[in-house]
């Protein structure tokens, strides 16, 4: 059994662990948001196919069950529409985990990423005894993502050189850290 719950409730959104059954709904969200996603996400340099997305979601299921990574689709609690995705990933440090997220273009500036990230932080604090830190990495130009880190109490730990892997990347990034209690 996976260490994190399959579903996390977060006010107006619900996080559900990845399933290949989400492929069509996620593809619609990615296609709508592709211009913005391509700015920041290395995986979004070309629109995925339905088959490719099903394979990614299937691998996400396996990783979730094996406690390697925990990927969630973010659903609007009222409309049941996919409004983004969020993942928690292991890092090279056994006590440090990394959060990554994206939000559907039509849903930005509504607090979706903050709600989802807060739910993941809470789950980590409750379920992962080995966790002492959570980090968020981003390109310095990704101002919206930086605001999520600030709202959740992450502190800017350092700047770092980054590979330019998407058109919006500058080659410089921020690493935000949240120390967990305990």
Instruction: Report the strand count.
Output: 8
The number of helical runs is 4
Backbone structural class: alpha+beta
Strand content: 25-35%
Considering the protein shown, what is the CATH homologous superfamily? Answer: Gcn5-related N-acetyltransferase (GNAT)
CATH architecture: 3-Layer(aba) Sandwich
**What percentage of residues falls in helices of 4 or more residues?**
25-40%
What number is the mean pLDDT? Answer: 96
State the CATH topology: Aminopeptidase
- Major β-sheet annotation: 8 strands, mixed
Please tell me what the overall shape is: globular
What does this structure look like?
- The chain has a single domain, classed as Aminopeptidase.
- It is 32% helix and 31% strand.
- It has helices spanning 23-40, 50-65, 112-127, 143-151, and strands at residues 7-10, 13-17, 69-76, 82-90, 96-103, 133-139, 155-161, 172-179.
- An 8-stranded mixed sheet has the order 1-2-3-4-5-6-8-7, with helices on both faces.
- Strand 5 (96-103), helix 3 (112-127) and strand 6 (133-139) form a beta-alpha-beta unit.
- The two termini are 24 Å apart.
Task: Name the features.
32% helix, alpha+beta, 182 residues, eight-stranded mixed sheet, Aminopeptidase
In short:
With 182 residues, the chain is an alpha+beta fold. The protein has helices at 23-40, 50-65, 112-127, 143-151, and strands at residues 7-10, 13-17, 69-76, 82-90, 96-103, 133-139, 155-161, 172-179.
